Amino acid sequence: ITINCWKDSVNITWRISQELTPYSTRLFLGNCIRSSVTTLPLGDWELHFDYKFKDCKFKRKMKGKHLIHQNVLTYRPGAKSKPPAYPEGWIPPFLNPAASVSTGHGGLVFHLALLNQLSGIAKSNVIPLGSFMPIWAAVEQKAHQPLRLFMEECVAAPTAELQPEQQQLYPIIDNKCLSESVEGNSVFLPRYHSSALVLSLQSLMFGVYIHCKLVAWDPEVLDESKKACQYSKQNGWELLDDPSQNKLCSCCDNACRARPRRGTEWSHGLSQLSVLG
Fold first, then answer.
1. Three-state DSSP class for 274?
2. Which of 66, 104, 192, 260 has the fewest Cβ atoms nearer than 10 Å?
3. Going by DSSP bridges, is the β-strand pair 196-202/132-140 parallel, antiparallel, or unpaired?
4. Could you name the domain of life of the organism this protein comes from (predicted)?
5. CB–CB of 201/180 below 8 Å?
6. All domains of the chain, ordered by start, with CATH?
7. Residue 107 DSSP code
């Protein structure tokens, strides 16, 4: 680590080995990430922190005639304590649903994508370990009556295609219950529209494909087959769309978590199997 101090700013160069380079966004000066990177011939990186002393939560103290600026360089491999949240009244700029008409027929178009800090579709599928992946699912209403979208089942798998009875599957959502919220910090974010849903999923420790069965139903109907449940460490299983009906999630610890066979049983019509890789 080398440090150059100026009158009102600092330049710090932190050399890291190639084992740490995939996690360079987990290294901080105070609360600031690196401002630039230099790649060295052997694969190591130099992280450069060029900031004013008014930034990054520098602390100041006087020692004799000297003014001392203090800060801390840290590596934070652990997970964030909380997932990102919507600003109040926020609607993603890339999907501002038009008003729905009362009747309509025809096929449905489903979407599944990784978001970039809740502001648009991510340009990269590389996620720092332990951070949160905002996974956006939506159904285009078009000429249909109003619809409510659910993630009925999601699994992580090492392949882009699921086979019947395939092994090496990691359950994320079991039959409408977000099982990943029990031990981890994954959550459904509050809906901004009934036809869309954002799952804030804590990133996994290996490269995977996320397979989700998306379904669309009448938004006026909530029951054990049409629900989105997540686990609260304080309150147990909760229903995303109407906490007053949390009893619909009471089966999440037993019967309704039974997983159906995969393959042809993942039907069409008002549902679609989507893959995010």
1. strand
2. 66
3. antiparallel
4. Eukaryota
5. yes
6. 2-75 (2.60.40.3210), 109-276 (2.60.40.4100)
7. -
SS3 category, 29: strand
Q: Which two tokens stand for residue 114?
A: 């990784």
Mention every residue, 6+ apart, whose C-beta is less than 8 A from residue 139.
Answer: 108, 109, 110, 111, 147, 149, 195, 196, 214, 216
Share above pLDDT 90 across residues of the chain, in percent, rounded to a whole number? 14
The tens digit of pLDDT for each residue in 252-263 reads 887 664 444 333
- Grade residue 71 by pLDDT with cuts at 50, 70 and 90: very high
Q: Global pTM?
A: 0.60
3-state SS, residue 95: coil
Stretch (H or E) spanning 183: helix 180-183
Summarize pLDDT for 80-107 with one digit per residue, the tens: 555 555 555 544 544 444 433 333 345 6
Phi-psi region of 158 (alpha: psi -120 to 50; beta: other; left: phi over 0): alpha
Tokens of 67: 């003014």
